[in-house]
Amino acid sequence: MEESPRDQPSIINVLSAYIRNHAKKPKAGTYDFDAPSDIQAALTALGYRNPNYDSNAVIDLHGAYLSGVYLPSGDLHGANLRDTDLSVAFLNRVNLRDANLDDAQR
Fold first, then answer.
1. Domain-by-domain residue ranges, the chain?
2. If you ran DSSP here, which 8-state letter would residue 25 be given?
């Protein structure tokens, strides 16, 4: 997204779909307290993008299993998840300290 701001809305849609399709609840009897590295990386890219290039793209994480996600505060601010759709998302053990969740759906 940093290299091609005009592609940012498409990248947001692709990363959101990837997370929704791959961040699934673990099978019964298994325990994973940390988010998988691919999910963590995708969320980090989404959370720390430059929102000035979002256009009409919305981060859609509805129904995603996000247990153990960690989006710490950056040098100047936390993750920007403004307007994100988090409806029916599983957010146990999530660290979103200082994240911008204004108008996020839950």
1. 1-106
2. P
